Amino acid sequence: MSEQETQRLDKWLWCARFFKTRGLANRLLGAGRLRLSGKVVLKAHQLVRSGDVLTFPQGPNIRIVKVLFLAERRGPALEAQLLYEDLSPVMTPGRKSEISEPNLRPARRDPGAGRPTKRDRRLIDHFRSEDD
């Protein structure tokens, strides 16, 4: 943990292991998809302090985290989890989320439906060549 008072937001997100690279964190910030204590952030150089609350999408979920400490380095995952407190609502398997998510399972299709196989294409070509 650090004795600093502020840290760049993109670096903190990277050190807390929310993003694999600082570039990915910069893209999220540049798109205006993160809120820092209720205000939309557009720049990666925005400074974050302990006690700030961050709200941002991560995959299909909306993450709400409270900054507890600032990072000195990007350490292991267990160390990174000590940097923040997760305030995101806990989703139980049977409970629907407040934000409706589309059904993520692939659509069911019957065997033989969809794209033709190599064998099917050969039969089609053979059928077409007999007509000529």
Strand order of the largest sheet: 3-2-5-6-7
Distance between the termini: 78 Å
CATH-defined superfamily of the domain at 7-86: RNA-binding S4 domain
Silhouette: elongated
If you average the pLDDT, what whole number results? 83
Strand content range: 15-25%
Please identify the top-level CATH class of the domain at 7-86: Alpha Beta
Return the CATH topology of the domain at 7-86.
Answer: Structural Genomics Hypothetical 15.5 Kd Protein In mrcA-pckA Intergenic Region, Chain A
Task: Walk me through the structure.
The structure is a single chain. The mean pLDDT is 83. The protein has 4 helices and 7 strands, in the order βααβββββαβα. Helices cover 26% and strands 20% of the residues. The protein has a domain of 80 residues: Structural Genomics Hypothetical 15.5 Kd Protein In mrcA-pckA Intergenic Region, Chain A (Roll). The strands form 2 sheets. It has a 5-stranded antiparallel beta sheet with strand order 3-2-5-6-7. A two-stranded antiparallel ribbon has the order 1-4. It is an alpha+beta fold. A hairpin with a 2-residue loop joins strand 2 and strand 3. Helix 1 packs across helix 2. The longest helix has 14 residues.
Give the tags.
132 residues; Structural Genomics Hypothetical 15.5 Kd Protein In mrcA-pckA Intergenic Region, Chain A; 5-stranded antiparallel sheet; 4 helices; elongated
SSE layout:
Elements: E1 7-8, H1 9-15, H2 22-30, E2 34-36, E3 39-41, E4 47-48, E5 53-58, E6 61-67, H3 77-80, E7 84-86, H4 118-131
Helix pairs in contact: 1-2
